[in-house]
Design a protein that fits this description.
heterotrimer; A mainly alpha (321); B alpha/beta (327); C mainly alpha (261); B: 327 residues; alpha/beta; Rossmann fold; eight-stranded mixed β-sheet; four-stranded antiparallel β-sheet; 12 strands; C: 261 residues; mainly alpha; MetI-like fold; 9 helices
Chain lengths: 321, 327, 261
């Protein structure tokens, strides 16, 4: 098992490098002078020159690549002139908010979606199944931000139940438990949006088809012949096999979830990385954009790795490759 | 009293608005400790018999008529929890295709321990000990108990399945194609072990196979199945040495014999009957080289002697044994 | 089935947009922020433009985008999937690695990044999104090619001396194409959603009317609820149409496949 883990980690290293190189390529493919991307449009003359020096932009390209690589590995992702702070610092600061949103939504979706999906699978081809599947399809077709807007209309403005802006009530100065409650209150709508519009229907569908497939397997028939109760068969034998695709998917979609988070954060003015990206687009704050892209790509790689490891625990077949 | 008695059993599958008559009037019985072989082509309904007895049929199957008397109780009528007590504890099974019969995410030993804790209320340790014995019995080292199914070879998996079927000391084991997926050498070993175990524990066995040689080696009595019905039944000796149905004769002729003269392999022309609309007369008539006009009516069950019967108009006519099939 | 109907209607709308919209979608007027009324069935937006017309015109962009993206993805996917599948060996390994890496990239971020750097041009956006989507088509094609290449008729054709290209196009692809087609309908659907997302963020081509654009405005003027509700419904219907279409195609193709084999 540990051999498997080490192998996966080692396999990830070249991927990480490729991601960084890809970033680098992007910088240099952009129209105009790469220094604009690295220094941002708002920099002063001296700053731009200093950046040019720092990234060795007058040097041959392979040297530039090396310098870039080293910089990144040292944690230097550039400097945002618009915010007057290093990019990495800004990113780290904004990460917890996004993490909160994404993890909450994804966990809720996985749990709820899987339960719903398994529930449907057990009632395969009954009315309940059809109705839920259809509703699921509709939800899946709704753009997340649209749902967000509707929710804002209904709950935020119409019914005035939930706050629609930001993560905490500005200026209220809550502490301790009240602080947490305040955050949760603000978290509700964005998390609901992110989860309902896309994540939950996705997991419902995965769980449902996975369970249906598993129930057709020979070992389930054997389990029945063994005289086990339907519940035992379902929860012990079928579910463990059926959950494997769920876990796999959960890890793989992180890239897309971040995209959804971007949208959601923008609408709800949630102070996370998504919103940060949105603002930076309009400020043309390129160093930030590049840095964000790099960081998120690496997060996705990491998520993939963790998923693989968890998968190794669930499915014994994969460890002995 | 026979251990298991199928009485005029009819089981159909529903396909939309059609019924597939998988088992269409089967009457069979087996006594304690006896081995019964059911032989026939694929699709003749033999696997369905196993599923029907154990009542693990899919949603669209229905037992239309008939009874399954097991030790006095009619399995078609008892409630589900009673049936669950019987499954594996008194009637167990060896499934075709052992490849997928074991759950890939659980260790092999644990899967057998499961039936012991559920049905026999053994503690984990006691169950473990018993599994060790079972493994030894089938020729598996007990180090393998902690392995996962994908680490087993085909033959090993089959042995594990056999061990599992014996775990609760059942009265009856139904084996569906127990050796088909294995190579000939392993087949021989496993068959020998099955016969051994069956004799030493006095377990009744129903062996279902399309391979006549497997049946011939292991069974006391034989039922020849075709199109959902039993065409001929009797002790192995009488059916194999004195076949009284053209289909049986055809089956025997299509298997090569290692000893004896080299002869051309024979095949029975034509295709198995359509189970949705079976012929109204003799089911085998369309493919029978001996067919006569009278075969347009259903043949009666003709007793040859004692247990041996055949459903052919010409069962008593010695001429049928001279039939030659084309091919 | 249902999907086909909606699709036909939408295409009709898109094509006839200039004819049937009650107003020119770009014309601004003084009637700002009218709720739905007789003269403007769905109301007007922040610049007094008629919403209904804008929604009708928006259909064009969405369909165009979907078709374009899917086309690119299909083309690249089939070619780049068939080659590793057919030749196997190192090329195949390379492809698998490449594919794994591709999966790691957060596509929306990438698209946004690229579009913001390189400028918001609809054709360009289509190319980028197409480039992010082709791997899934490629993977399906590869799987199909792999399974089909050992079929009898392929071996027969190879034995008869047919060239690789010929085998690929005459024999393998026509049989393996169905899952890819189904996947394409899904991709069109995703492309439409992506386009809406991009224009929602303000990264769309200002010369085009897009549903996402309308939603963008809706966000800042949330009390004009009609601006938010209707484009969303439009998006949903079109996306659903493609989903249904995909299922319909899948349903039709599968028994046919079974009959063939």
């Amino acid at each position: 098992m540990s051999g498997y883990v080490i192998r996966r980690i080692l396999e990830m290293i070249p991927v990480v490098l490729i991601v960084i190189v890809f970033n680098f390529t992007l910088i240099h493919l952009a129209p105009g002078d790469p220094v604009t991307i690295l220094a941002g449009e708002a920099g002063t003359r001296e700053y731009v020159e200093a950046t040019r020096k720092r990234y060795g932009l007058d040097e041959p390209i392979y040297k530039q690549l090396a310098i870039y690589l080293i910089n990144v590995l040292r944690g230097d992702l550039g400097y945002s002139f618009a915010h007057s702070r290093p990019v990495l610092e800004l990113i780290i600061e904004k990460t917890p908010a996004t993490l909160l949103l994404v993890l909450t939504s994804q966990s809720l979706s996985i749990v709820f979606g899987t339960i719903l999906g398994a529930f449907c699978a057990r009632r395969y081809r009954t009315k309940t199944d059809y109705v839920i599947s259809f509703l699921s399809l509709i939800m899946y077709s709704i753009p997340g931000y649209w749902l967000g807007l509707i929710l804002i209309l209904v709950f935020g403005i119409g019914l005035r139940v939930f706050p629609i802006w930001g993560m905490i009530s500005a200026g209220a100065g809550f502490t301790g438990i009240d602080y947490i409650k305040d955050i949760l209150w603000h978290l509700f709508l964005p998390a609901l949006t992110l989860s309902a519009a896309w994540l939950t229907p996705l997991f419902t569908r995965i769980a449902r088809s996975s369970v249906i497939e598993v129930m057709k397997e020979d070992y389930i028939t054997v389990a029945r012949a063994k005289g086990l109760t339907e519940n035992t068969i379902f929860f012990k034998h079928a579910l463990r096999n059926a959950l494997i695709p769920t876990v796999t998917q959960a890890g793989l979609i992180l890239g897309f979830v971040l995209g959804g988070a971007l949208m959601t954060e923008t609408i709800f003015a949630w102070p996370g990385l998504g919103r940060f990206m949105y603002e930076s687009i309009f400020r043309r704050d390129y160093p930030v954009l590049m840095g964000l892209f790099l960081v998120t790509s690496l997060c996705v790689v990491a998520a993939g790795l963790i998923t693989d490891i968890i998968y190794g625990f669930l499915d014994p077949r994969v460890v002995y490759k | 009293m026979p251990l298991l008695d199928l009485q005029n059993l009819r089981m159909y599958y529903s396909l939309g608005d059609k019924w597939v008559k998988a088992i269409d009037g089967v009457s069979l019985s087996i006594a304690r400790g006896e081995t019964l072989g059911i032989v026939g082509e694929s699709g003749c309904g033999k696997t369905s018999i196993m599923y029907t007895i154990l009542r693990i049929l899919p949603e669209n199957a229905r037992i239309m008529e008939g009874g399954i008397l097991f030790d006095g109780a009619d399995l078609t009528k008892i409630p589900e929890d009673a049936m669950r007590q019987i499954r594996w504890r008194r009637i167990s099974a060896i499934f075709q295709n052992a490849m997928n019969a074991l759950n890939p995410v659980f260790r092999v030993g644990d899967q057998i321990i499961e039936v012991l804790t559920v049905h026999k209320n053994l503690s984990k340790q006691a169950a473990r000990a018993k599994v060790r014995d079972l493994f030894e019995l089938v020729g598996l080292s007990d180090a393998h108990m902690n392995n996962y199914p994908h680490e087993f070879s085909g033959g090993m998996k089959q042995r594990a399945i056999i061990a599992m079927s014996l775990a609760c000391d059942p009265d009856l084991i139904i084996a569906d194609e127990p050796v088909t997926a294995l190579d000939v050498v392993v087949q021989d070993q496993i068959l020998w072990e099955i016969r051994n175990m069956q004799e030493s524990r006095n377990v009744a066995m129903i062996i279902i196979s399309h391979d006549i040689s497997v049946i011939a080696e292991t069974c006391d009595s034989v039922a020849v199945m075709y199109g959902g019905r039993i065409l001929e039944f009797g002790s192995s000796t009488s059916v194999f040495h004195d076949p009284r149905h053209p289909y049986t004769i055809g089956l025997l002729a299509s298997f090569p014999s290692l000893k004896g003269q080299k002869r051309k392999l024979v095949s029975i022309e034509g295709v198995p009957p359509d189970l949705v609309n079976p012929p109204s007369g003799c089911l085998f008539a369309p493919r029978c080289p001996f067919a006569k006009p009278v075969c347009a009516t259903r043949p009666p069950r003709t007793t040859i002697d004692g247990q041996h019967f055949s459903e052919c108009h010409f069962a008593r006519d010695p001429q049928i044994q001279t039939i030659r099939f084309g091919g | 089935m249902l999907g086909l109907i909606i699709l036909v209607i939408s295409t009709g709308l898109a094509a006839l947009a200039p004819v049937i919209s009650p107003y020119d979608p770009f014309v601004q007027s003084d009637l700002l922020f009218l709720p739905p009324s007789g003269r403007h069935l769905l109301g007007t937006d922040n610049l007094g433009r008629d919403l209904l017309s804008r929604i009708i015109w928006g259909t064009r962009v969405s369909l165009l985008f979907g078709a374009g993206v899917s086309g690119i993805s299909l083309l690249m996917g089939i070619v780049l999937g068939a080659i590793p599948g057919y030749f196997g060996g190192h090329i195949d390994d390379l492809f698998s690695r490449f594919f794994e890496i591709y999966l790691m990239i957060p596509t929306l971020f990438l698209t946004i990044l690229v579009v913001s750097i390189f400028g918001a041009n609809i054709v360009f956006a289509m190319v980028i999104v197409g480039l992010t989507l082709w791997p899934s088509n490629a993977r399906i094609t590869r799987a199909q090619v792999l399974s089909l290449k050992s079929r009898g008729y392929v071996l027969a054709a190879t034995g008869a001396g047919a060239s690789h290209v010929r085998i690929m196009f005459r024999h393998i692809l026509p049989n393996g194409i169905y899952p890819v087609i189904v996947n394409s309908t899904l991709q069109i659907r995703n492309a439409i959603l992506t386009e809406a997302s991009l224009s929602f963020l303000g990264l769309s081509d200002p010369n085009q009317v897009s549903w996402g654009q309308i939603l963008n405005v809706a966000q800042s003027h949330i009390t004009a609820w009609w601006l938010a509700v209707f484009p969303g419904i439009a998006i949903m219907m079109l996306v659903l149409a493609f989903s249904f279409l995909g299922e319909g195609v899948n349903f039709v193709m599968t028994p046919r496949l079974r009959k063939r084999t």
